[in-house]
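Morning run. Coffee first, then this:
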Amino acid sequence: MKQDASDIVFRPTEEMISRSRIGRFMKGNGISDYEDLIKRSTQDIEWYWDAVDRDLGIRWFRRYDKVLDTSKGTPWARWFVGGTCNISYNCLEKNIEEGRGDSRAFLWEGEDGKMAALTYGEMARRTSKVANALKSFGVRTGDVVGIYMPMIPDALASLLACSRIGALHAVVFSGFSPPALAARLNDSGAKTLITCDGYRRRGKLLDLKRQADAALAASQGVATVLVSGYAGNEVDMTPRRDFWLRDAAGGQEDKCPPEVMESEDPLYILYTSGTTGKPKGTVHVHGGYTAFAGQQAAYLIDEGPGDVVFWPADIGWITGQTWSLYGSMISGGTALIYDGAFDYPRSDRWWDLIERHRVTIFGTSPTGLRVLMKQGREGPRSHDISRVRILASTGEPLNPAEWNWFFEEAGGSKAPIINLSGGTEVGGAFLSPVPILSLKPSTVGGPVPGLATDVVDERGDPVRGADGYLIVRKPWPGMTRGIWGDPERYISTYWSKFEGVWFHGDWAMIDDDGYWFIHGRVDDVIKVSGYRIGSGEVEALLERLPAVQEVAAVGVPHEIKGEALVIVVVLRAGHVPSDSLREEIKNYVADQIGRIVRPDDVLFVSDLPKTRTGKIVRRLIRTALLDEETGDLSTLDNPPAVDAIRKAHRK
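And here it is:
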């Protein structure tokens, strides 16, 4: 990867390189150049993942006989064959045996200011009590346990407890509605649910138990419900089905031996957001995911003992599970877990958390970053956040304006931004910078070591300097082991476009200097008069305009052009919709990209439809523009935004 481009804004110091975990890994394996590491790790993936396993010190009850087996085909690759392990052992006992039993695994804080510090030793005891409680209700290896909880200590212990006894956890984001929860419980076949009475957002009580009860009315397979008493609100308890978690776990032994699991035994089911049809239940396994989650935390965000990572992502998403829970514990660090609104009771809540808890690694989504930007520079500048040495982001493309603000205001122009790209089915990220590389704004770096990624055209041939399809040519340990209960959908979704190659559905570009960039989903590529352009490219362009706060670019059918470009805009405070501003936006796109893609229309709205993780749902914007039925909106954070776009278009 070339490092002499004029638009590079970050260059690592020699100290950063030498102290980094990826730098030490390279030195220990006789590799002096990162480009050589990528080449060797992708050409010989078995060597690389065996070296990662040894470097991370993963504990096996029985060491594997073979690193990789593809005898059933690449889509059904098996990793660390013959090995037995348990991920909870590598999260808990491994740290205790290495002398970190009294070190903090988690720092927890609630919206009301309550705090707790949970050591590795305490987490081991909590986990064992919950594990023994689950066993007392008949939960066994291979059973599925639904988890519908906010970010609280009981939730963390519940995930680890399931892993410990070999049950699969299926976490559902606590902000999802009853129909969304019911769909996932039914699809997974869960017979047990762990939830809580309620939680508060901006001081308002949300009755989660009532939500769970509504879902259970449509999920007759759930026979046992364990309820954490977190908010202290009164709830209905169904006799012989509902039990308080504190009562069920309180009298249990605080030791529960980990179940001996085959490397390929399922660890958990995690559903994609489901904004495009039936949710997909991705499946991750004990052995492969242990190695992958450890690699993601240790080498990409450089977490290790002594670090405090704050990445406010729910455990209902892959970011929360890979970096805030499993990856953090495997790497021996500390994760700051916050249950609450980012701006309550004051707008600077996150900056305050970073200062008080001495955070060294801070991650957020581009959506969260845009909110921080809107609040202004006062927040980061009024707090001592100088200990932050690594910044991270994932979830959607990060445009240059956002990247530069994050780099300058949160990192003091000294901390690299680890701008990752991956997904639930990936187990984490397959594109990412690492702390030893120079960076351009918005870059996702390049391939994560050990993942043979590429960008190709319609024929499957490599393409450089232009947008193409993001693919992976070889398997990796964190890859989903299918879609729960639907192997045909797994093959058709990921393996059918190019034979024997993983097709992720992202639109990407590798520039002339070897830097990689993500330009959105292939589904969000607009084809105007034969010219292809990504939604993300148009949106990043328009967000440079002073009047534009947020924007979505979509394509709608056009009898002559094939598709017409429509822009939906949320304006910044102090700017009002007008015909002149509409024309300015149209002309700006035409001037910057080409007259051929001049937008046919520009709509002004107060909000864009988003999932509860902040992702803009362009499919629903198209639906509104075409005046079609929207279907289930349970995964949306703001359903009224769809009708608002529909009304704006009808005017």
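The longest strand covers residues 548-558. Good start to the day.
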